[in-house]
Backbone:
């Protein structure tokens, strides 16, 4: 797999702290995949994202974008942040203007686009994110789910190659979460590499096709969901749990599971049980 973003032996400490937030981190986000970066709070996920867009600079080691070391000159960082979009966990940290239309167009204007292209991209993104009806609604009147979609729209309007999301479903109700995940799947289907930091193992198992596990500023596991979640003891040692669906699957008698691969979604689980119910009952 070709890495689109790499951390090579990156170490970093926050000012005033004696603990390293990243400790010789070597980790790759593969191009074209849906990657979940998992780990408990404080494992370094958010710090890695801040390094990805050049907000933080490694104390040692280097970040690489498409095989090239990240440069920290102002113009280079501006270009990098158009190619790598970062959506923060709290949209209040990202939304700075009064309405969704103004906020989305601000990022495009700051990137130096012509006014006609700014208008076209803003309108297209409002429609794509299904928030056109909210274009002129004051930001403070939006729900949390709507604010997260506006923040995502502002990032995607810049047409990045890589989209990073920090705990994107945190504090969302089930309906808002499903809408957001649907948007991420649509974005990925259009050719954008997507990576999210999450401690939600149920989400990581169902959504991702590649998983990275961080602990104390290092990458300690990587692989497909099937490869990662078979290592139950190691995950528990790292303070993580198996996805609920996988726990239920593993609790079924072998005669029911047979040689089938574990289902990745509730729909797959229901389909399997319906398919084999006659044989089970017999």
Residues:
């Amino acid at each position: 797999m070709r890495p689109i973003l790499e951390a090579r032996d990156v170490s970093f400490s926050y000012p005033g702290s004696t603990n390293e937030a990243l400790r010789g981190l070597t980790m790759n986000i593969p191009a074209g995949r849906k990657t979940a970066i998992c780990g408990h709070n404080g494992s370094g996920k958010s710090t890695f994202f801040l390094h990805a867009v050049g907000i933080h600079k490694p104390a040692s080691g280097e970040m690489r974008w498409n095989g090239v070391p990240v440069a920290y000159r102002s113009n280079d960082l501006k270009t990098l942040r158009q190619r790598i979009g970062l959506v923060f966990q709290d949209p209040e940290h990202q939304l700075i203007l009064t309405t969704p239309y103004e906020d989305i167009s601000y990022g495009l204007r700051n990137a130096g686009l012509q006014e006609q292209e700014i208008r076209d991209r803003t309108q297209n993104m409002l429609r794509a994110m299904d928030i056109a009806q909210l274009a002129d609604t004051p930001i403070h009147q939006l729900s949390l789910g709507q604010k997260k979609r506006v923040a995502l729209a502002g990032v995607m309007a810049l047409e990045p190659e890589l989209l990073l999301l920090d705990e994107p479903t945190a504090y969302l109700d089930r309906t808002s979460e499903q809408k957001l995940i649907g948007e991420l799947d649509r974005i990925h289907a259009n050719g954008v590499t997507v990576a999210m930091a999450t401690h939600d193992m149920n989400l990581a198992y169902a959504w991702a096709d590649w998983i990275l596990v961080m602990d104390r500023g290092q990458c300690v596991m990587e692989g497909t969901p099937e490869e990662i979640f078979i290592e139950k003891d190691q995950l528990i040692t790292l303070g993580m749990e198996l996805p609920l669906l996988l726990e239920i699957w593993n609790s079924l008698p072998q005669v029911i599971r047979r040689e089938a691969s574990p289902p990745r979604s509730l729909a797959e689980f229901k389909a399997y049980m319906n398919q084999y119910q006659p044989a089970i009952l017999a």
About this structure: Strands lie at 3-12, 22-30, 34-38, 60-65, 68-69, 84-87, 162-166, 193-198, 210-215, 218-223.
